[in-house]
Specification:
This protein is α/β, with parallel strands linked by helices and 354 residues long. The chain is 40% helix and 19% strand. The chain has 2 domains: 112 residues, Enolase-like, domain 1 (2-Layer Sandwich), CATH 3.30.390.10; 217 residues, TIM Barrel (Alpha-Beta Barrel), CATH 3.20.20.120. It starts with a strand and ends with a helix. One of its GO terms (biological process) is carbohydrate catabolic process.
């Protein structure tokens, strides 16, 4: 089998439901142009990957990516994964672009084998609990109301995206713990809002309140800052979400002692191949590799990675609307369609999810 063409279909995507990510950050997007990357072969099979950044992807395919893939064997995923890193040295791809070719190649392999991608990877489980990952709401009272709705909807745990003020967020985290009790798993995501001093203040509050993890409190450019934070707070740090370099940068976080656990994902770790590298790296240190983000590609990762514990399901609105792929028991079940299975198995709007 050989690659005969690489195309991008531009897709008009509607505006998202209105939501916010902490103060000072944009949240929901208006109508934008998404894209479907397709890798075509001489045997009539086609692999896909979906993105919300269609215009950027199309430019890079036209200028850099297509010519490098034409005529190659699509089963040589390791070679092609390394080729994208070679092109990145020239172009400095946006972090999400690195993985799109890899995702499309895995989709193609699954279709050729007649198997869902998680089975090609080696399925570890066929269902996993989902946690509710909140947007930023207006008040402590609204957060408590949303938490009640999430638990009633079957979610096993709740992760907060809050305001980005260390003292206000600490108060919210304490009051949420008091509200739901000690048996509910709670997490906090700082979305890189803090410097080291404020991250320490909030980390102490999360430690006292028994939070399961403390995610991305600072920008991930300084491993040293994260090491200093890890030395002084008891709550485990969940690190290396958006750091460039996939397993290479993740290894530095682990080696420094900064990692309570690490993030992995198809979006920020150079596709499925990169995500699995990070997961296996973490497992070798007996650390968890928690899958970042929702969507069907990450659903496959959740089924294939032994050392992950939850599927992240976003709760963006009040009243709470549970993601359709998550059952009333709070479980995400394994996709069954061959390949990735965009727009199948009850997943809708695959382009908009990634």
């Amino acid at each position: 089998m050989r690659i005969t063409d690489v195309t991008v279909e531009l897709v008009d995507l509607p505006a998202q439901p209105v939501f916010r990510w902490r103060r000072g950050l944009p949240g929901s997007e208006g109508a934008i142009v998404g894209g479907i990357l397709r890798i075509h072969t001489d045997q009539g099979l086609c692999g896909e990957a979906h993105t919300r950044r269609g215009t950027i992807l199309n430019d890079l395919v036209e200028r850099r990516i297509r010519q490098d893939l034409l005529g190659r064997d699509p089963s040589h995923r390791e070679l092609l994964w390394h080729r994208l890193w070679e092109l990145d040295r020239i172009e400095e791809f946006p972090i999400y672009v690195l993985g799109l070719v890899d995702i499309a190649l895995w989709d193609l392999a699954g279709k050729a084998a007649g198997l869902p991608v998680h089975q090609l990877l080696g399925t570890y489980r066929e269902a996993i609990p989902a946690y509710a990952s909140t947007a930023t709401f207006s008040s402590i009272e609204e957060y408590l109301d949303v938490a009640d709705q999430c638990l009633a909807s079957g979610f096993a745990a709740i992760k907060l995206h809050a305001w980005g003020d260390a003292r206000e967020d600490a108060e919210l985290c304490r009051k949420l713990r008091d509200h739901v009790g000690d048996d509910v798993c709670l997490m906090y995501d700082g979305s890189a809002a803090f410097d080291l001093a404020d991250a320490l203040y909030l980390g102490e509050a999360l430690s006292d309140a028994g939070y399961t993890w403390y995610e991305e409190p600072m920008r991930e450019f300084s491993v040293t800052a994260y090491r200093r934070l890890a030395e002084r707070v008891a709550v485990p740090l969940l690190v290396a979400e958006t750091s460039d370099g996939a397993h290479m940068n993740t290894a530095d976080f682990i080696a420094s002692g900064a990692a309570g656990s690490v993030r992995t994902s198809a979006l920020y770790k150079a596709g499925i191949t990169g995500a699995m590298r990070v997961a296996h790296l973490a497992e070798s240190f007996l650390l968890r590799a928690e899958v970042h983000g929702s969507g069907i590609v990450n659903a496959h990762l959740c089924m294939a990675i032994p050392n992950t514990t939850y599927y992240e399901s976003f709760v963006l609105t009040n009243p709470v609307v549970r993601e359709s792929s998550v059952g009333p028991d709070g479980q995400l079940r394994a996709p069954t369609a061959a390949g990735i299975g965009y727009d199948q198995d009850g997943w809708s709007g695959g382009v908009a999810r990634d």
